[in-house]
Design brief:
421 residues, 7-stranded parallel β-sheet, two-stranded antiparallel ribbon, 9 strands, binds D-fructuronic acid, binds zinc ion
């Protein structure tokens, strides 16, 4: 009887909720995409879709080819190999493989023909300017946050020269090299005219790092700063990362009202022969994040954590600290099974005060599948949650559902970025 009632109350709202979740325009709060002014740095098209590092990692499960032989191939040859091993020799059921097909299908291409040359021909006919708009429309994405690093030798000169910004692309200042590889970053800062001492950093060094951060935050109009961290990240600690955080990065963020996004849990280069595909995951001691949130209440922190086993503790931390905003199902957690689990847990513990997903797209066209797949899972979770409410006699109106979904899809994040800590 209970089940029948639950089903009956579920039906009327379900369709409405699904429609809203599938169609609400959203802000993608973390990607590796670029404003089209960066030209070749903005990846798109079938060969970039196929050579995504997620698929490279999966291909090597089936190949006995030496790593060096694979890396010596051209991008087209690598794509051929991946297509052959992941799509033709086995069925493409992994999330990343399915994603390629979802994208092609949404673009109106016939995947059942399995015709890679024809797909290449179609993509060769696209113009990037209109194609960006097409992908964003199909994904329902209205704003894309980039990942912008002054330490990237291809990206930096574009910023230095200046260009007409596309206002659909917002900037986030990525500072991994500064915080995690100080001995290499400091001489570069020195070459760029900042008076830093790599060996014995004094107050002057920290002030100069702040000057560097201010210059770049202004140049790119950064909406937040960002760093990924290894699972053994500790704060406070007797190391340069801790000092730089406390004496340069956090004061800079406070001065300019910018959040610092932390992404702990990545073990870089677990298998270096896989290059970008060779990173792994580990459990983080979230005491570091707790110490940051508690010790710096005037700073705002955003966080996404890589290990599944850290997700519950992260939710509890967000309940304790309003200066912490959690976002996304990052990388290895960006699979429907875990998006479902994490989104349920987050809504149950945090209501609507979090951002359930970001795409982490590295290739423009991936926006289509990453968002289509995530929207479906988020819709299912919300149908359950609103249905449970309706069983109590509480009815949500359509404008209320729209408001809630807008918050989940970037509204709450943008407010967090703008509000004082
Ligand atoms: O550090 C990051 O921002 C990660 O998202 C990337 O480095 C990673 O390679 C990736 O693409 C994950 O989705
Ligand atoms: Zn990323």
């Amino acid at each position: 009887m209970k089940t029948i009632l639950a089903e009956a109350s579920r039906v009327p709202v379900a369709k409405q909720i699904e429609d809203i979740v599938m169609s609400t325009p959203l802000t993608d709060v973390h990607t590796h995409l670029y404003d089209p002014a960066f030209k070749d740095l903005l990846l798109w098209g079938i060969d970039d879709l196929l050579t995504y590092h997620y698929l490279i990692a999966e291909t090597f499960r089936y190949l006995d080819l030496p790593y060096e032989t694979f890396w010596a191939l051209s991008k087209t040859q690598q794509a051929d190999l991946i297509w052959n091993s992941l799509f033709l020799q086995h069925s493409p059921i992994s999330e990343a493989c399915r994603g390629v097909l979802t994208t092609l299908h949404a673009l109106g291409l016939d995947v059942k023909k399995r015709d890679l040359p024809a797909l290449r021909q179609w993509f060769a006919g696209q113009q990037v300017e209109t194609y960006v708009t097409r992908c964003m429309e199909l994904a329902g994405v209205r704003r894309i946050y980039m990942t912008n690093s002054p330490f990237d030798d291809l990206e930096r000169p574009v910023w230095e020269k200046g260009f007409q910004r596309d206002d659909r692309f917002a900037a986030a200042l990525r500072i991994d090299p500064l915080l995690l590889s100080w001995t290499e970053a400091a001489p570069r800062l020195a070459r760029w005219g900042f008076k830093v001492d790599p060996l014995v950093p004094s107050q002057e060094t920290f002030d100069e790092v702040r000057r560097f951060l201010t210059e770049w935050s202004r140049r790119i109009n950064a909406r937040y700063l960002m760093v990924s961290l290894s699972p053994d990240f500790q704060f406070p600690a007797q190391d340069i990362t801790s000092q730089l955080l406390e004496k340069a990065v956090l004061p800079h963020c406070r001065e300019h009202g910018l959040p610092l996004a932390l992404m702990p849990g990545v073990k870089r280069a677990v298998n270096p022969r896989l290059k970008l595909a060779g990173d792994g995951v580990g459990l983080t001691d979230l005491a570091a994040l707790q110490n940051l949130c508690a010790g710096f209440p005037d700073n705002k922190f955003a966080a996404t954590v890589l290990a599944r086993e850290n997700q519950h503790e992260l939710c509890v931390l967000a309940r304790k600290f309003r200066n912490l905003h959690i976002f996304g199902c990052w990388w290895f957690t960006n699979v429907p099974f875990l998006i479902d689990e994490m989104t349920r847990m987050r809504t149950e513990l945090l209501g609507l005060s979090f951002t359930p997903q970001h795409s982490d797209a590295r290739v423009l066209d991936q926006l289509i599948y990453k968002w289509q797949h995530s929207r479906r899972v988020i819709a299912e979770v919300l149908v359950d949650k609103y249905s449970a409410l309706s069983q109590t006699g509480w009815h949500v109106t359509r404008p209320e559902i729209e408001r809630d979904v807008q918050d989940l899809f970037g509204g709450a994040f943008e407010r967090f970025c703008q509000c004082p800590a």
